[in-house]
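Lecture 7 notes: from sequence to structure.

We start with a single chain of 73 residues. Read the sequence below before looking at the structure.
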Amino acid sequence: MTVTIPKKEYEVLVEAKLRYEYLRQIMEGDIFSPPPTKYVDEIVSALSKTKKYNKKFLNSLKKGLSRSSYFAE
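Now the structure, written as tokens:
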């Protein structure tokens, strides 16, 4: 059987499949494994060095992680 669809719709379907495959691969990994460090300052410092996050976000993250019983100061 042959089905004909517009090129734009085909591109949308291909992109959706690629995203699905990407998410499936991520989910097969151990996404619930603990972070490599328990120190909040190390985590915030590493994220700060990337220059991708603003100071307000980093302060909020530090505050949130500090509330967790898993992480140490």
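The first helix runs from residue 7 to 28. Keep this in mind for problem set 3.
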